[in-house]
Amino acid sequence: LTYVTNPILEVFTPREGESNGYSMIVCPGGGYHILAINKEGYEVAEWLTTLGYTAFVLQYRVPDKKEEALMDAQRAIRVVRSQAEKWQIDPGRIGIMGFSAGGSLSARVSTLYNKLAYTPIDDADKLSCRPDFTALIYPAYLDQGENRTLTPELKVDKDTPPMFIFETADDPYGNSALVMAGALR
Helix, strand or coil for residue 79? Predict the structure, then answer.
């Protein structure tokens, strides 16, 4: 997708009787310019449903709307949490997964959950936007600090959710995973 002006949260549910109660919000990559929605969104969501997850693909705002993307991710977590009963998921088992720039967004929402990124809209915004767990898949832009250290806006502390980080050694953004892993340690 090349232009998203209104964020969308698409729901993918596991087959009847196969839900494990967990949910995962999937954030496709695309450099904050586009969304690689098929491979890093829909295919991943469909796979997650086979594992019992209720998956949500987030179409966050692009191009070049980094702050709006954070708003969209915070709102998505709150909406999922507020609708947990409807989707038959545990409101304390909501994860976020992102690929490349979507990994950046997932790291940002996982460390900036105390930042009020947008004006509250309804009662859902009274709920926490902190994910319960995070998966960063070849994340980008996490090493924009001095001398390629952790990006200054990312505030890792004892309340940062647990993270799974996947990266390959030949990825030009590989240092992002290393500095985030170091900060989490």
Answer: helix
